[in-house]
Specification:
Strand content: 15-25%
Number of domains: 1
Structural class: alpha/beta
Low-confidence stretches: none
Number of helices: 5
Number of strands: 8
CATH topology: Trna Endonuclease, Chain: A, domain 1
CATH class: Alpha Beta
Mean pLDDT: 94
Order of helices and strands: EHEEEEHEHHEEH
Largest sheet: 6 strands, mixed
Shape: globular
CATH architecture: 3-Layer(aba) Sandwich
Strand order of the largest sheet: 2-3-4-6-7-8
Length: about 160
């Protein structure tokens, strides 16, 4: 059940719905020369972004439901756990079903909040083996990526060009 952010033992420093995450990512990707296509339902990736010979496939989650936007309500810990599991399994399904003429890079995007970061960091090695890059959106709007060095070099190379 949703909880008041201020009622949490350690309140989340940022509150974002998946749409907030996607807006921040689209702004960032557009500024870096990507062509962007947004998904319209759960059967599509949230964002597909192409630049050169690379296509980014991004699936986003937040710490707040769409219906609670503008309130102090955020997901509780059990909801965060469920959403993380769904997030990863959905990306894995897309990895098997999506075709593209470009090199495919899969990214799971989340707000940079301790409750999500701690859970994801426990899965880093497995996510690296699955080829899933972690995208973090910070309170001030900056974005960073995490992955093993091979995946990280691949994504950093895209933004350096």
């Amino acid at each position: 059940m949703p909880k008041s952010n201020q009622a949490l033992k350690s309140p989340d420093p940022i509150v974002m719905t998946p749409d907030d995450i996607n807006e921040a990512l689209c702004t960032y990707l557009s500024a870096n020369g990507f062509s962007i296509r947004r998904g319209h339902d759960h059967s599509e990736m949230d964002i597909r972004a192409v630049r050169g010979k690379v296509e980014l496939f991004i699936e986003s989650r937040g710490n707040q439901a769409f219906k609670n936007k503008g309130t102090d309500l955020v997901f509780d810990s059990s909801q965060i756990d469920n959403h993380l599991s769904e997030h990863i399994s959905q990306i894995m399904r897309f990895q098997q079903s999506i075709s593209s003429p470009y090199e495919k890079i899969f990214i799971m995007a989340n707000p940079y909040i301790p409750r999500i970061v701690e859970r994801v960091h426990k899965l880093n090695k497995g996510l690296d083996k699955l080829g899933i890059i972690r995208g973090w959106i910070f309170k001030e709007g900056s974005i960073t990526f995490e992955a093993d060095q091979n995946l990280l070099t691949k994504i950093e190379g895209i933004f350096d060009k």
